Amino acid sequence: MPNTTAVKQKQPAGLYLLFATEMWERFSFYSLKALFILYLTKELLLSTETASGYFGNLMSLIFLSPLFGGYIADRWLGKRACIIIGGICIALGQLCMGQGSLPAVWVAMGLIIIGNGFFKPNISSIVGDLYEKNDARRDGGFTIFYMGINLGSFLAGIIAGTLAHKFGWAYGFGSAAVGMIFGLALFIWGKDKYLQGKGKAPKEYIKETAKKEVSNAPLTKEEWQRIAVICIMAFFTIFFWAIFEQKGAALNLIADQHVDRIIHFFGKSFEIPTAWFQSINPLFIMLFAPVLSKLWVNLGKKGKDLSVPAKFMVAFWLIASGYIILLLSTIVCGDNKMGIMWIVGAYFMFTMGELCLSPVGLSMVTKLSPTKFISLFMGIWFLATSVAGKLAGLYSGQLSKMTLQQFFTWPVIVPICASLVLLVLIKPIKKWMNGIQ
Description:
By secondary structure, the protein is an all-alpha fold. The protein is 79% helix and 2% strand. The protein contains 16 helices and two strands. It has a two-stranded antiparallel ribbon. The longest helix has 30 residues, at 13-42. The relative contact order is 0.14.
C-alpha cells in the first residue's frame, strides 16, 4: 500500500485535472449514446431504419471530426482553447437535443460533432505532454486517465437514463449538458495552476519543435512495412467496431423491447431503465482492465506474449461469443422476452474483446508510426472507427427487417471470418513489424 501511494503522488497534478475533465465529457457523450436512438424512436417516432441512420452518421462524424480539431489546435488555437471551445459546443448541443423536434436534433448533432472534434484529440494529447518521452510514469498516467473515461461512461447510463426515464428526455440530455459544463469549469479553473504551461501553442514553440523533430529523410523500407501493418490492422478494426457499436444502436432497442427489465425486490417490482444497460460495458472495463493488463505483462515475462494480430483474433472470437449468447437466448426463450443476464453475459464478452483490441491497437500505432507522422496515423486509426460507426448504423437499420435470430447470426459469422483471414496474414504481419511487439 505505501508503494502504491508513492506512485500516485509522483504523477503530475495536471493529470487529475484532465482525469476529472475527461470523466465529465465522457459522461456527456455516453449519456447521448445511451439515449439518442431511444429518443428518436420513442419520442420523435422515427422508424428503426431512419433512427439507425442518424445514429450511424453521428458516430461516424464524431470519430472523423478529431482529424480537423487536432489540426486546428496544432496550427492556430492551441489545445487549451480548443478544449474550451469544444466543451461549450458539446454542452449547447446536449441542451438542443431534448427539445422535441427533428430540426433541433440536427442542430444538436452539428454542435456535438464540432465540439467533439475540438475536444477529443486535444485533451488526450495534453496528457502525453505532461511526460517526457521515456518517463516511466507515462503508462500509469494513461491508465488513470482511462479509468476516468470509464467512470464517466458508467455514471452516464445510470444518471441520465434514470432522469430521462422518470422525468423526461430533456432532463436526461440536460444532465449531459450539466456534466460537460462542470468538467469545463474544472478545466478553466485549474489549467493555469496545474498544467505547467502545457497545451499552449505559441508559434515560436511550434517552429522550434519542427526544427528539432521533423526530418526530411525519406522513409525506410522497414518504416513502410510498419505503416502497412497499421493500415491492415485499422481495416480489421472496422469489422469489430461495426459489430460492437450495435450496443448503442440495435441492441439498445432490443434491450428496450425484447428484454424483461422487471426485477422483484422485497415484494416490490422495479423496471430497469433501458439506458442502464449502457453502464454494463464501462463497469466491466473498470473491473477487468487491470486483470488483462497484468495478464499481458505476465505472458511477456514468460516469453509467451501474444502478437498484436493474435490479440485481435481473440477479440473477434470474444465478440462473436457475445452474439452466440444472444443467439442462444432466442432459442431458449422463444417468443418470450429474454432475461437480463443474457444481455449482461453478451456485454461481458464484448468488453473482454474490446480490452484485447482497443488499447492494444492504440499502443501499436504509437510504436509502429514514424515519429514525424504519429498524429497522422492516429487519425487514420480513428478514421477506421468512423467508417465502422457508419456501418453500424446501416446494419442496425436492418433490425426491423429481420428476426432476432437472423440479426444475431451475421455478427457471429463476420468476426469469425475476419479472424480466419488474420490467421492467414499473421506471419507476414509479424515480419513487417520488424521485431516490434
